[in-house]
Amino acid sequence: MKILLTGATGYIGKRILPVLVDAGHEVICCVRDKSRFKPPEAVKQKIKIIQIDLLVKESLDAIPRDIDGAYYLVHSMSASSDYQKLEQESAINFRNALNETKVRHVVYLSGIVNESDLSDHLESRKTVEFMRLNQLPDNGDLASMGQPVWSETNYEGIGFGIGWAVVLDPAKANIIASVGEHHWGGAASTFFWLDPEEEMFVIFLTQLIPSSTYPIRRELRSRVYQALID
Fold this sequence. Notes:
By secondary structure, this protein is α/β, with parallel strands linked by helices. The chain has two domains: 2-109, NAD(P)-binding Rossmann-like Domain (Rossmann fold, 3-Layer(aba) Sandwich), CATH 3.40.50.720; 131-226, no CATH class. The protein is built from six helices and ten strands; from the N terminus they run βαβαββαβαββαβββα. It has a five-stranded parallel beta sheet with strand order 3-2-1-4-5, covered by helices on one side. Strand 8 (182-185) and strand 9 form a beta hairpin. It is globular. It starts with a strand and ends with a helix.
């Protein structure tokens, strides 16, 4: 896969980079200042580096159009009092730029599973908390809006936020989960979920088409939650 990695100079980005390269992916590293980026020699000749600034829309033209996936690992650690506005502007610019590509997966990794002791900076992620809330009319579930077509699960007890499903009632949905857990899957059985209550996130990448072939996501969820002992 051709993967776009933002935040390549950050704590998480520097650790994900060699993992992606070792897995055989073609990685395009996005940095604001190439002179500050010192990748390991083992991966230096296997990556492409582009210089962009998420607050400068024109610089995002450097993002290749044929990427398959993207990691959004950046935030506005600015001393400016407008960092909340900058945070939102960066995310919107990134989203709009990706809309011009062939990207199929976007991984947004942040502290969104943490709901306590937020710093002033992290409070700019309150928008994400709103996205996690059920947005359906009268707090209804997906079953009240229509019938599932190809999904291997029913829609009872499952709401929908802005971009992902939200668990409203695990018993009604007949799954092991926490209320408020949010998730989504792809046609090839790929899956992710974030559980703020357990402070846990899971990313599952596979290729099984269609996703209704085998209930692999349901079994994965059961095994993960059954492994929790505290």
